[in-house]
Amino acid sequence: MRVHCLARAVLFVLLPAILLAQAREADCKSCHDAEAKVSASAHASLSCDTCHDQHTTYPHPQGVEKPACATCHSQQAEATSKNVHGLALKAGNTGAPDCATCHGGGHEVAKVSVPQFRQTLADTCGMCHTEAAEKFKASVHGQAVAKGLRGAPTCTDCHGEHTILAKDQIASPVHRRNIRDTCGRCHGDVRLASRFGLPTDRVTSFDASFHGLAAKGGAQSVANCASCHGFHDVLPSSDPKSMIHPSNLPQTCGQCHPGAGTRFSLGTIHFTEGGNEPGPVRWVRLAYWILIPFTVGLMFLHQAGDWIRKLLTLRFRPASPAAAPRPNGELRMYPFERIQHALLAVSFVVLAWTGFALKWPDAWWAKPLVAWESVWPVRGTVHRIAAVVFMICGVMHLASLVLSPRLRRHWMELIPHRRDFREGLAMLAYNLGLRKTKPQVSPHGYVEKVEYWAVVWGAVIMGISGLLLWFNTWSLQQFPKIWLDVATAVHYYEAVLACLAILVWHFYTVIFDPEVYPMDPAWLTGRSVRRRQAGPHSPEASPLSEPAPGLASASPAPTAASPSAD
Does 488 lie in the same domain as 354? Predict the structure, then answer.
């Protein structure tokens, strides 16, 4: 009963207003024939006096301004006043579009929610942007919009609606640093991509590529989606007019890599690790997935067992007379070698830091490098400088072998022998508790040889793959893209292996080994404090036992890789 009473009261209050509005509408229709237009527009539900509130008297007052859209649409009007169109109007460009240009006059305002509005939007924008509209309508996006496919992008999806900004403004969705996110709104949506039958990994594969990683770090000149696919004229790769058609790839890639060869198109452009990656890249990844855990795992078992053994021996058992340290320490490195080692160590650390900063630009330790990326390519520049220093170390090593007969003779001790394999297995068994007696090990035995030849192997692999990536324009002129994909995978996984080997094998030998802790000073003073067992290959038999100054009498280059290693 109360509900009925309340309803009657509301009707009693509103009925006069409704009847008055209808009367006014009837009065308007007696002179104005806009009813048909208004009834089909977005304003169909509004009465005339909603906009024309000063025209309720007759005759109408003179000089009354036309109703402003901002009266009801204040947010949209505020945004429009700051976009490229609004700024052009403020600057006096009478040809710049206003609300009515895009939406129609007040009596025929188009409904933006209907499919027809989106289908005709390219024509609306094309009134001013003719060339761009024609290209868009011929593109995959334009064709999808013309077919009425919901979700197909049109002009406002990329450029914005009322917040249209110039492409060189950082806040613009089509600014080069925002292109990835703008395209990713559709191509990164798995459900939307699946509905249209599109690959679902395009954004993730771009993010994992060199271009994507560099863009994520803030690089401004690196290629983005539009650099390769175009923007208004996006076409499928099967279309001869497409920028990514195989016949056009040399020209497309040549924008950044002048002279890119036609063989560049042979291979997969977008691929993800473990997904649709090319066969050679997959085999490289699987090989390193086996090699890295196996190699680093053996190193860890060897060093962990050695640490436990030595800890127990040094803390709870008397030292063996045979293992007493030599007076003043054993000579292991001459000044020239210490210079090599310093250059090698610094360049290696810088290479690792700058290289992994490209892979993980969001990491806290990469921030000092990435902070400058939008202004100057710090990571790439510093990485290449460190690479040059690293290669200079290799040249210095080869030159010392050529110029020093004694060094060449001593270098022969680093050639692997069968005894090294036996000594290594015996020491591993001893460290793991599978052997009771400690085996004799050569002063330049398997430990030094593993480090030396690992550095040689890594320098060659990293050097070749790094040069292919550094001089990528030349590489693209000579080889298919798969060569660079393989070089990228090899360069990354070899860097991971090298860093883990340094941390587990080399750092233990020169820092964490209880015999030399807190550090073996051989890389600073040339003399090691390490205890060595007397035997057939004892230090007294080594050429290093006879000190001699200068390059002609320098000790062997393996110490550049592991200067104080046992």
Answer: yes
Across-strand partners of 331?
527
The parent domain of residue 424 ranges over 279-561
Query: Are 444 and 530 spatial neighbours (Cβ–Cβ below 8 Å)?
Result: no
- In the prediction, which pLDDT does 6 show? 56
Q: Are 563 and 523 in contact (CB under 8 A)?
A: yes
Predicted local distance difference test score (pLDDT) of residue 25? 55
Residue 289: inside a domain: yes
Q: Please compute the mean of the pLDDT values over residues 21-36 and round it to a whole number.
A: 65
Tell me, what's the pLDDT at 52? 77
DSSP H/E element including 447: helix 446-470
The CA–CA distances, whole Å, from 467 to 8, 249, 342, 479 equal 86, 23, 23, 13
| Count of alpha carbons within 13 angstroms of residue 210, beta-carbon side | 19
Cα 532 to Cα 545: distance, rounded to the nearest angstrom: 13
Beta-bridged to residue 528, according to DSSP, are 330
Domain annotation covers residue 498:
yes
Contact in structure between 390 and 351 (CB atoms under 8 Å): yes
Domain shared by 185 and 151, yes or no: no
- 31-90 pLDDT, tens digit per residue, is 777 777 777 787 877 777 777 776 666 677 777 777 788 888 889 888 888 999 989 988
**Per-residue confidence at 305, pLDDT binned at 50, 70, 90?**
very high
Q: What is the DSSP string of 17-86?
A: HHHHHHHHHHHHHTT---HHHHHTSTTTTS-HHHH-TT-SSSSPPTTPPPPPGGGT-HHHHHHHHHSHHH
Q: Are residues 105 and 254 in the same domain?
A: no
Q: How many other CB atoms are there within 10 angstroms of residue 497's CB atom?
A: 19
SS3 readout for 376-439: CCHHHHHHHHHHHHHHHHHHHHHHHHHHCHHHHHHHHHHCCCHHHHHHHHHHHHHHCCCCCCCC
User: How far apart, in whole angstroms, are the C-alpha atoms of residue 395 and residue 379?
Assistant: 24
- Write the CATH number for 289: 1.20.950.20
Domain boundary among 229, 253, 276: 276
State the CB neighbour count (10 A cutoff) for residue 81: 14
- Is the Cβ–Cβ distance between 428 and 305 less than 8 Å? yes
Is the distance from CB of 10 to CB of 17 less than 8 angstroms? no
Give the residue-averaged pLDDT of 515-542.
Answer: 70
The string of pLDDT tens digits covering residues 291-301 is 999 999 999 99
Listed residues 139, 164, 189: the one ending a domain: 164
User: Is the distance from CB of 263 to CB of 480 less than 8 angstroms?
Assistant: yes
On whether the CB atoms of residues 554 and 337 are closer than 8 A, the answer is yes
pLDDT category of residue 9 using cuts at 50, 70 and 90: low
Contacts of 234 (CB under 8 A, 6+ apart): 139, 140, 141
Mean pLDDT computed over 210-217: 84
Q: Which residues of 253-285 are buried (b: 16+ CB within 10 A; e: fewer)?
A: bbebbeebbebbbebebebeeeeebbeebbebb
Instruction: Pull the structure tokens for residue 228.
Output: 């390769």
What's the pTM?
Answer: 0.77
Q: Kind and range of the H or E element at 330?
A: strand 330-331
